[in-house]
Design goal:
By secondary structure, this protein is of the alpha/beta class. About 45% of the residues lie in helices and about 15% in strands. The protein has two domains: about 190 residues, 2-enoyl-CoA Hydratase, Chain A, domain 1; about 45 residues, Lyase 2-enoyl-coa Hydratase, Chain  A, domain 2.
């Protein structure tokens, strides 16, 4: 079960299957996609993912569903997960994963698809597919090296080992660790950028994300184009004027 709720200018998607450690069935993956799409119609400034219960963000795929499928069904399953999580890449506002426990396999892949990740000190993360004779299929082999580098990613994927919250923070897999409730940290983290204008936030995310797949010269051209577009917004005029006038800007997302 997937619950979509609103908290002020935030949308919160909760994986609500605690009896199965919030494992991902194919139906739940489809529900996640539907929740992302619905949240995209709301007037929000950030999207947060979390897991119900105290033990897990998401413990991974529903293993029984993966058995005995024909080849094309296996391919379709991987593409469903990839396509669903990829919706976050171009989502209109930044997303955060509030990792409140286990995040394994597809659960970690969902978290890595988010713009940011925060975790509780007890969180455990890993891509254990190799132990089943498999490899990650929902984007793990592609997003993990972008976050932690090739060597660390290969170690995690090829050994299937679990990393704790402190190690995940040190390697750049998560951005921050919570001292209290991890969902509260996610909301506080979101508050650090939700006050800025959405056009500039979108341009900045686009520039950084595109940098990963382009040569430096092309990336600089992209940055110049997006920077020029940012100057044409009313928010930019307001921000510059507020700086000169020594006041707080009032952005209107225009």
């Amino acid at each position: 079960m997937v619950n979509l709720t609103r908290d002020g200018d935030l949308a919160v998607i909760t994986l609500d299957r605690p009896e199965a450690l919030n494992a991902l069935s194919f139906a739940i993956i489809r529900d996640i996609g539907a929740a992302i799409d619905e949240a995209g119609t709301w007037d929000i400034r950030a999207l947060i993912f979390t897991g119900a219960g105290g033990k897990a963000f998401c413990a991974g795929a529903d293993i029984k569903e993966l058995m005995g499928r024909p080849l094309m069904a296996e391919r379709a399953g991987a593409e469903l997960g990839q396509r669903t999580f990829a919706r976050l890449d171009g989502f209109k506002v930044p997303s955060l994963a509030a990792i409140n426990g286990y995040a394994f396999g597809g659960g970690l892949e969902l978290a890595m698809a988010c713009t940011f990740r925060v975790a509780s000190p007890k969180a455990k993360m890993g891509l254990p597919e190799i132990k089943l004779g498999l490899i990650p299929g929902y984007g793990g082999t592609q997003r993990l090296p972008r976050l932690v580098g090739e060597a660390r990613a290969l170690e995690m994927v090829l050994t299937g080992r679990t990393v704790g919250a402190d190690e995940a923070l040190a390697m750049g897999l998560v951005n921050r660790l919570a001292e209290g409730e991890v969902l509260d940290l996610a909301k506080a983290f979101a508050a650090e950028f939700t006050g800025f204008g959405l056009p500039a936030l979108s341009f900045a995310r686009d520039a950084v994300q595109r940098a990963l797949g382009t040569p430096l010269a092309e990336g600089l051209r992209i940055e110049a184009d997006l920077s020029t577009l940012a100057y044409r917004t009313q928010d930019a005029a307001e921000g510059l004027a507020a700086f000169v006038e020594k006041r707080k800007p009032t952005f209107e997302d225009r």
